Amino acid sequence: MAHSVNISIPSLNKQISVPTGLFIDNEFVPSVDSQELIHAINPSTEEVICSVVAASPKDIDVAVAAARKAFKNTWGKNVTGFERSRLINKLADLIERDAQELAELESLNNGKPVRIARDFDIGDTVQCLRYYAGWADKLTGQSLEVDNKTKVSFTRHEPIGVCGQIIPWNYPINMWSWKVAPALAVGCTIVMKPSELCPLTALKLSELIKEAGFPPGVVNTVPSFGPIGGAALAAHSDVDKVAFTGSTITGRKVMEAASKSNLKKLSLELGGKSPHLVFESADLVQAANWAALGICYNSGQDCTAGSRVYVQESVYDKFLDLLISKVKAQVIGDGFDDKTGGGPVVSKGQYDRVWGYIEAGKQEGAKVALGGVKRTGKGYYVDPTIFTEIRPDMKIVKEEIFGPVLVVGRFKTEDEGVFLANDTNYGLGAGLHSNDANQCMRVSSALEAGTVWVNQYNLLYNNVPFGGKKLSGIGRELGSYALEEYTSVKAVHWNFGEKIDWPL
């Protein structure tokens, strides 16, 4: 097959050229042994956008070999931090230049609104790259006193090597930058496996990798089905580290494969069932705004989606009315309409999954306060749905749904609220709303989550670490902490004065 296609966007009367081959050694190439294809679907129309090459295990071998060669010869310790910084900044410039077209492609393949993809996802991607470009020439170790008269020891933070990076479909461009930027900053090389549901923007970004001037093999992109390409990366004996974002179920498989192969370093950003606590002292209008954002943003397809809201009993009714009015105001529709705040869910499989949970909530006795009715017509659209009268044992309360489905409960005391919030196997995010400063400190300390938002929700910054605990994963992304995930610390002991006698 040809290694690029032109994709039409009828509403804009334009076409976008998209690579369809595997990106290895700065070239788009066919599979070495397979004719299998990935069919990219437009979730708004349910139509095939185009088809791209699906990498086989042998293709993963070729990509890893290219990354290893680059690490040894043209990247890794062979390039100064200043040069890494220059190239990463150049890449950020190119993404900023092409932001509109990348956003349009993202909307076609993922469903999210062009405006959201451009102004938030891609805007943050550019900032993320520039943030880590700033780190590239500032990596430091320690000088350690051993014996000032005869010895010194020091540490070096060295790039860990070839990194397999497996990213999800909910933020295809943004998650790409979270993985790529810190790895490149420290000198690692990359084999990137985008989600089979949304591979197109990763391939388009690969064109910009080459245009920016990165040496061949530094970044390789291998769209593949998870059980094939993802499994091959996780088990590969010449991959030094795997970074995975996705479900907890798949994260367990990645961890098992890593342990059974070469005990490669892992960072896992997994699922969540994140709680919001609304206390009686809170600004209820603002709390409702943030809670609506927490479940509606990205159509609820967010690992930190605030999918459980617990409200202090004295303000429950007032808050619920406010929340319903806020969620009703969200426009779910065509991603190419600037009035749209959310699009369809990403696929038929995800659509069926979300509706399975909505029906389970009804069957288990939860009350539908908003939504819960299917649309007619094309597209995997799910309107925001709010359940009340919930119990802790319900599936919609316990399990991650990954769609715009919210459960709302109530509590009497602070201790009860904290207990309900922590009553989950996940620990990615949590939020609380209160104007009592002492309460904010107590509760933020008591919540079992890697990120706690106080009087806000779901805002992340490139200089602030992000990650989870419990079933939400291990390791951290963003901030200086992410650099540690891609480095290996070497201790050097230097003897310049001690003599020994032998035998002892």
From TrEMBL:
Domain (Aldehyde dehydrogenase) ranges: 34-492
Keyword line: Oxidoreductase
Active-site residues (renumbered): E269
Pfam family, one: Aldedh
Protein's UniProt keywords contain Methyltransferase: no
Origin superkingdom: Eukaryota
Family label: Belongs to the aldehyde dehydrogenase family.
Protein name, entry field: Aldehyde dehydrogenase domain-containing protein
